Amino acid sequence: MTHSGDPWISSGMKELNAPLEAPVRAFLQNLARDPSAHARFMNMLSMLEHMGSRKIMLSQMDKVLTEDILKHLAEEARHAYFFKRQAERLAGEALDGYDNGNCTTRIPAAMYFGRMDAGISKRVAPADSYPWVSLIIELRACWLYAIYHQVLEESGLRISLKSLLAEEDMHLAEMFGMCGADTNTLRALTAYETDLFRKFWAVLEKTEGCHALAA
Length: 215
Known about the structure:
By secondary structure, the chain is an all-alpha fold. The protein contains 8 helices and no strands. It has a single domain, classed as Heme Oxygenase, Chain A (Up-down Bundle).
């Protein structure tokens, strides 16, 4: 398959996730009206961003750390801080750590990330794990955060994901530059992650008392 030069076209991400967009948007709109649930959701996003930064650190420990990799690591850690800070503002109290009381679907979220990481790592060469896992994560982050940003703007909440999205878009372009020529693998891994995300999001919606995604 020809490399299109566009990660969205090459991955098929938007087409695969088109059925999910409306229910995900509706879930986020409902969430924006419930500060307590919203705070727990943002703390979950903080946890996932923290797991992403930790993945970079662990996968690169025995390798030569470039400025770009260190920058990526620092920005993912800052995203974890951003979501934690916004969660605590919504909650009106400290949300130390990530536990079942302050973090929505903590275990399913961690399992989603772990299965995605392990599954992708099994499908690519060990040396390619970091860029491939990062590429798939960035596709998901950009897809979800773009919808979330729109919902936040419409809700009137004084929370903006604009700068965070700009950094995620930059990371996506960098990882696509490293892996995007292998379109067949990219499409297969995107489909694999989308299936994991659909199942995770169904659990998330059920936990928060919303309508689950259709099977």
